[in-house]
């Protein structure tokens, strides 16, 4: 395996951050990162793209039966864990830790909200993630292919379309089937509900509107 191949490095970094890389492969990759500053920077770039999505997900409280099942498996026949003195000692310590963490995390969340960005993950009809599109404050768009799309493109061009609610698709530009593509749109992704990629003739749609099939799409999210 040629670890100097830019496409391979980008794919491995994405797999590492997303959690798709496991076991021995993950440990080997961590060894590579320890000796490769550029690879560490690639991983941090993916973390910047993916982790904000996790922050944007709403919290969910497991039903009570889940906690009861855990309790019965850990201490069958024992008194409920919340009745013990040790529990309250731990709880008070945990509460103090949470209060301290809140002092640190809350400003981070406020700052994150102030710097909210727009992005989208475009998926194929088979629900495979294909592209990550991220907008900056100046209207720049960074489009990262998560895999080599040359096979899907064939002899066609990959054209990116912005779709505002209730409006016709607007061409953003052509996307490279591999690696990173930089495009610009005056409004960035503001006011855009969805992004889509269609297969078009080389050079792009001759009509200014989509003429080929949609091969991937995704909703625009605020992170």
UniProtKB/TrEMBL annotation:
Pfam family for this entry, one: RskA_C
One example GO MF annotation: sigma factor antagonist activity
Ranges where the Anti-sigma K factor RskA C-terminal domain occurs: 94-214
Protein name: Anti-sigma K factor RskA C-terminal domain-containing protein
GO CC terms: plasma membrane
Membrane-crossing segments per the record: 86-106
GO biological process, alphabetically ordered: regulation of translation
InterPro entries according to UniProt: Anti-sigma-K/W_factor (IPR051474), RskA_C (IPR018764)
Annotated keywords: Membrane, Transmembrane, Transmembrane helix
